[in-house]
Amino acid sequence: MKPVPEIDRQVYELAKNYLPSLRIEGVTPSLIEKYLNPVYLNPRPISKEGLYRSILESAQDAHMKSGVIGGSIDGIDKLAPILDGFNPKGVLSKYGDNWEEVLDQIVEQLKPRGKIRKTPRSIWPRYCQTILSAAEFIDQFASVDDFFSWVDFFDRDDRSRASLPMLLDHEIKGFGFALSCDFLKELGYINFPKPDVHLRDIFTALELCPEGEDDYQLFKAIIRVAKHSNVSPYNADKVFWLIGSGNFYKDHKIGVNGRIGSHKQEFIDFARS
């Protein structure tokens, strides 16, 4: 059997070249490179309000939440009047730990489309709990620079890095390890790949990560593949995510509004062969 580094490197190269090989209009090697380059990330927030908003943006990006949350109110920015312009201290002063009042205000002022289930484990109630716990978390930092200094402390040490998304998982209700990684990654921290469902399916199918492992082990497997391929974890994350999601979110002229459909199973079959 081939050594693990060689397998990792070969699978990465196959993945990087796969979508351009399908000759889908506009999906070129240069387009793929654009998505692998973190310079194209949105600018970092310059205030605690921007940081709080970023958390809430990432928090809805799980399973069907983005459609139920942002999709039903035409975007997270619509929450600004209810959340005191995304001011964590203002949110805590207004609502305390009363997530039901947050939800009542959202229903009254924004009138989300679709059925609103109000049992505590339903999507909107859980998101409102995230709103309050995220406000409490961000409010503890003196400034946005204080927050980034704190993250830098973890990011500098390979041994402690993975403990940061674990900590965020515990601090912010409903966030989880994968969403914590996504939040950090989108802030420009390229060492935090998101162990999402697309990467899990590909990595387990190609035996890059044992089936049934938790998000932490998948996180480590992505970092290992990146290291053996001499690229950043962010780069490796995006290569496989683009295949699984088919979502070129910065290029709406590609496919149908930026979407070309998932090519995950086709790639798995191709890589196995």
Describe the structure.
With 273 residues, the chain is mainly α. The chain has two domains: 4-41 and 192-272, no CATH class; 48-186. The chain is 59% helix and 0% strand. α3 runs antiparallel to α8 and α13 packs across α14 (233-245). The protein starts with a helix and ends with a helix.
- Class derived from helix and strand content: mainly alpha
- Biggest sheet architecture: none
Q: Averaged pLDDT, please? A: 91
Q: How many DSSP helices?
A: 15
- CA(first)-CA(last) distance: 15 Å
Envelope shape: globular
The tally of beta strands, per DSSP, is 0
Overall radius of gyration:
20 Å
Count of the separate structural domains = 2
Strand content: under 5%
In short:
This protein has 15 helices and no strands. It is an all-alpha fold and 273 residues long.
Which short descriptors sum up this protein?
single chain, globular, 2 domains, 15 helices, mainly alpha, 273 residues, 59% helix
Layout of strands and helices, then pairs:
Layout: H1 4-21, H2 29-36, H3 48-59, H4 65-68, H5 70-73, H6 88-95, H7 99-110, H8 123-139, H9 144-155, H10 163-171, H11 176-186, H12 197-205, H13 215-228, H14 233-245, H15 264-272
